[in-house]
Amino acid sequence: xxxxxxxxxxxxxxxxxxxxxxxxxxxxxxxxxxxxxxLLADGRLPLGVRLPAERELAEALxxxxxxxxxxxxxxxxxGHLASRRGAGSWTMLPGNHRVxxxxxxxxxxxxxxxxxxxxxxxxxxxxxxxxxxxxxxxPRYLSGAGYHPTGxxxxxxxxxxxxxxxxxxxxxxxxxxxSGTQHALDxxxxxxxxxxxxxxxxxxxxxxxxxxxxGRRARITTHGLAADAGWEPDxxxxxxRQTRPKLAYLIPEFQNPTxxxxxxxxxxxxxxxxxxxxxxxxxxxxxxxxxMDGTEVPPPVATYDRHSRVVSIGxxxxxxxxxxxxxxxxxxxxxxxxLAAVRVGVDMASPVLDQxxxxxxxxxxxxxxxxRRVQLAVQRDALLGALAHRLPEWRVTVPRGGVTLWxxxxxxxxxxxxxxxxxxxxxxxxxxxxxxxxxxxxxxxLPFTLPAADLVEAVGRIxxxxxxxxxTGRQRWRETTVIA
Length: 484
What we know:
Blueprint: E1 3-4, H1 7-14, H2 28-42, E2 49-50, H3 54-61, H4 65-77, E3 81-84, E4 88-91, E5 114-115, H5 126-137, H6 153-165, E6 175-178, H7 181-192, E7 198-203, H8 207-215, E8 219-224, H9 233-243, E9 247-250, H10 264-277, E10 280-284, E11 310-315, E12 327-330, H11 333-343, H12 352-363, H13 365-390, E13 395-396, E14 404-408, H14 414-422, E15 426-427, E16 429-430, E17 443-447, H15 452-469
Parallel strand pairs: 1-2, 5-15, 7-8, 7-9, 9-10, 10-11
Antiparallel strand pairs: 3-4, 6-12, 11-12, 13-14, 14-17, 16-17
Helix pairs in contact: 1-3, 2-4, 3-4, 5-12, 6-12, 7-8, 7-11, 9-10, 13-15, 14-15
């Protein structure tokens, strides 16, 4: 059970439930039940959460209790609600349907495939010169064993300096270099989470984080993000206080996949609430460098931490190149040493040569990141223009950074669309991959990391199959195995 949602909170999520298109001739109870089902399908209302009592919701919506009673009964009949006398009613899906978010897929070596499943850029031109400079630095390390469990000092200092420049004073002792951000997350989970421990995540969220949590046998609870506004402060803070999870995994900068940016005030309140209930925060900063349109990024979440409750993770994959498997953890110095002790049972250390390449790229970070932001803004706008022209029924909130759009489709067809798109040479990451239990079928993540011409071509192919989708037979599913 994910806790309880209050009447005023559910009323806020429902919004103008009684005035939705096509609902005016429906009974009020049917419209209310349909809106609740919509929240479940979108992932904004978690599964296993207890709904408010009938009287409480009726007062919050200013309708009769009879209407709420009928709506709850209708939801039970359709399999979206389970009730027990004297205990309340909990959200569910018909038949306890579940879709696991497991597995990563590796793109096939198919040059004709337009891959919109991976949200990562090709390498910057500066990578080659950085690699050449790194080989010149390598000889001074060759006389040693080459094992540096926390990372070479040059890279730890460079990462620490970047945090300090963002307003968060950091020393090299607070940095641990890892083999990518996913590896950083895995190490933190190994240290901080016991099997069966509760973890709060956003919905939707990064699929590989869900896979890592499943690998640790975590008990996952969710906070549903609004498609247009992101985090609901009352609901997020309420979830922390009610469920009191061991960990919370959040992506505050240009959230993957929605692109939302968490405001500074909420960051401060989340840290305070986490400390009050004994929750440690894992903050994924993978996209923090990729602000666009002059957007000012709030201070790091760890800025508000006074009790070593915040562990920040990040890496080189998104602003630089995914093939350079360099990530890091920022935590207190004692936590870094404990992580190093955990790490030696996994992979000992990151490659020295790769770390030296990262040092040279970070030395040129200002120019590289500036170019990336310009490139991404052009590609984002090309994708937005193609969607507006070819698929105007889809709704998209324009992100102010990151690399992805979160598109609300014109129907619950995300998985079917992804299957059909494979047949026309487009690989998609359907909405359910970013959530739990088969929800998010009305959403699709669309990264704008390909060249603009490829994005326009991909949208054209998607539009062509979308309009025939309802009339075609079931296509053979070619199971993909990764989303990045």
